[in-house]
Amino acid sequence: MTGSKQFKRRLGSTLQLALLGGVSFIVLAHAANAQTVSAGEVSANATAKYYAHLGKSSIKLTKKKIFQSAQSEAVVSRQDIQALGPSTSSAGALATAPGVQIRGYGGNSDTARYQIQLRGAKVGWSSTNGDADRNGITVLFDGIPMNNTISHNGQWDSNEIPITQLFSGINIIYGPGNPSSRWFDSVGGTINYVPVQPTKKPHYEIGVAYGSQQTENLHFILNSGIHDGWSAVVAGGYAGDTSFWRGTSYGHYSWPAQSHAIYAKLSKEFSNGSISFGIYNVNNVEKSPRPNFIPLTPLPGVTVTGNPGSPLFSQSTSGFYGTGTPDIWYKQLQVRDTIFYNKISLDLSGNATFHNNLWYRWGHRVHYRINNYGTNAVNSPAYAPSTNTEYYYPTTNQYGDDMWMDYRLPYNDVKFGGQLIYERYLSPYLGYNSTGYQGNTQANPAQIQKFTLYTTYAKAFIQDGIHPITALEFTPGIAAVSYHTDFTNNLPLGGNNVVGAADASRTFVRLEPSFTARYQPVPWGALYGSMAVSYQNPTDNSFGANQSSSPNISTLKPTQARDYEAGIKLYSENLPVIHEGVLNVNYFQDTLMDEAISNYLSNITTTSLAAANAKLQGVQVDATVEPNFHWRIFANASFDHNRYMQYVSGGNIYYNEPIAYNPNILLNAGLNYRAFVGSTLMTLGLLDQYTGSQHYYNNYTSNVAKRKLPGFNVLNLSLTANIPVPPALSRRVKVIEASFNITNLLGTRYNDNGFITSGGYFGSNSAGTNTANNVLVQPGAPRQFIAGLTAKF
User: Fold this and answer.
1) 3-state secondary structure of 5
2) Got the DSSP string for 447-462?
3) For residues 175-197, b (16+ Cβ closer than 10 Å) or e, as one string?
4) What is the DSSP letter of 315?
5) How far apart are CA 29 and CA 738, in angstroms?
């Protein structure tokens, strides 16, 4: 692609974003001039509208809002997050929601990476292949997308949100949703992490926590309250820990990790709306003898050090939570993110509201991995690979605008608008030998690659919420989406450039129709159903990234998702005996067509492609009762039957195969009891979580395995005390909150991840054994403790 074409494309995208942003500021300036609010003249009516003006993407869902919706939705409240402990990860905080599964190596750690599964669709990193749609969920921060639009590896990492105390709640939409709330990766769902917002009155808190594996956590929230129509919040924190992976008889290795995050938001309220400016910055660094997979059973020649004479490396011989030595296994991963954003919400008339969200996101990752396993076997250099080290450092620059209008008429609620997102993704790679074997170093690498992907996503939509009578509402909608992708190989073909793909470009334009309906025959019950067709752009590997030759993109198609939902919602605040109760039951069927799947083997440069059509279907049940002030009892379950209708890999075609890492059942059940002891409010919580069995993926056959990872059950306990501070002791500190959490209370030993190796993971070994077709696993965390203390001012 010529420089002139790149310049014209970038200029065009920049002009489009500038135009959209300019329109929003023109509208704002007009409204500000038309209705100025002088200092001290904020009316009571305007104050009452304060939270509405923050915009729907900054407001967490409630049980009542979910009941009134025709979509399948859930919310994780701040209370739910706190009950899981101060060091709960952003992924772990979702684990109590129906249909959510979390997989990862960190246990109850806010610095580690996890994969989130939402009814079969996934986001995040799990270290294994076999996902039907690995990037099928859009993750939002305060309504702003965090996803990379094109990267298969590193599209979003859960430790980009390490400090969960910063959030007032987490909103979940299952399936694509209506056009107004749908994003470029929302084929499987949308997760919106809603941070604490500026408040009407000043509020401050600071908290610390310490626990198992040297877990440390510090957070603060500073809210200014409203002053002359302005309000601000600044919040942030630090997290640090080591690992429950205990090493072996050759020593324990701490695997330290650290995270820092800061968030700030400034909001100005007008009598007819508001404008806000936000920033979020995070830096997460993991250093380790990496938590490598461990053989489930002993394999001849596979030892702790890779040398003959050392103990066999497996869960039964070197320890259930064993890991290799740092001279054999080492990995450092750094994840950084910075988001600047602006939100505008304006009432243009009595029935029309204008909204606009404008943002810039910078993302950066550093992946540095050394695998020396086998290089010293029988003390022979013949075992030393030319590239035992991979070092890559991709960078994302994303510019976006989300604009819509909302017209409220007597029998209609019409929304129309659009989104425009432009992204540049640059990914350099160096493959070399950490020992300098045969002169191979980072300065003189054996393998290199450097490619850039430019993507432009555009969407225009309209939907009409029609309610001819009070009990009935239906919403037809349609969106037109465009995905444009340019792949550029930044290095000459051949030599040590492992990417052999030529420059390529492709554009997809599709229509996404949708329809939702809701009927409420009684005040406490409603029926609902929906249908939505949505599309997702293939990821970078399909256009040539990490490929030794050019893929045939003329046959490439966007993934199509055809989603059907049907269910019943019951909600009442005045029930006999149980007082407040919620029951949501829904059936879902999501058919994914034309999937382009990437499978990684020994390193990122050995990436293979597969194609598939899949069907995700099942039933979800979610129930909560609160019979009185003291008790809250809840349970939810997801029964899934997810299968590939067709899976094509390595020239083989498979039909009606199960999808790897999709449990047939997920179950949460728990209770909370609270009571006053004197003036102190005590809360005791129990949460039981069961994950059903799931198929491994087999790297050796490049297909789903018949063998399964067994199901497991984990019980968690929480205890919280809110202690009022008498004015005689402190006029500033109002409440001290003390918490104590135990995860995996019963100390259950279980594996929560694993795969069947193709033989490359342990490579050469002292016995010359071919390790292919054996199970490698990662254990779930043992019993962990954490205690926290928070002062509220």
Assistant:
1) helix
2) EEEEEEEEEEEEEEEE
3) bbbbbbbbbbbbbbbbbbbbbbb
4) T
5) 47
Angstrom distance (rounded) from CA 14 to CA 16 = 5
Query: Which H or E run includes 30?
Result: helix 3-34
Q: Which amino acid is at 670?
A: G
Mean pLDDT for back-to-back runs of 10 residues, the chain (793 residues): 44 40 38 37 37 58 92 91 85 92 86 91 87 89 96 89 93 95 95 94 94 92 93 95 76 78 94 93 82 86 80 89 77 93 93 96 93 55 63 96 95 96 96 81 90 97 96 97 96 90 96 97 96 95 90 92 96 85 96 86 69 94 94 95 90 91 95 94 95 94 92 95 89 91 95 89 70 91 94 92
Alpha carbon distance 407, 416 (integer Å):
9
How far from 557 is each of 129, 422, 655, CA to CA, in Å? Answer: 21, 20, 20
- Neighbouring residues of 448: CB distance < 8 A, sequence distance ≥ 6: 428, 429, 430, 431, 491, 496, 497, 498
Report how far residue 388's alpha carbon sits from residue 381's, in angstroms, rounded to the nearest whole number: 13
Beginning with the edge strand found earlier in the chain, give each strand of the sheet holding 294-295 in spatial order.
294-295, 775-779, 751-756, 694-698, 703-709
Identify the CA nearest to 114 among candidates 99, 93, 96: 93
Please tell me the distance from the alpha carbon of residue 126 to that of residue 160, in angstroms, as a whole number: 15
* pTM, to two decimals: 0.91
Enter the tokens of residue 706.
């018949």
Q: Is-contact 387 447, C-beta < 8 A?
A: yes
- Per the listing, tokens 């994950």 go with 691
Q: Could you tell me if 510 and 538 are in contact, meaning their C-beta atoms sit under 8 angstroms apart?
A: no
How many C-beta atoms surround the C-beta of residue 106 within 10 A?
Answer: 27
Token pair belonging to 306: 């890779």
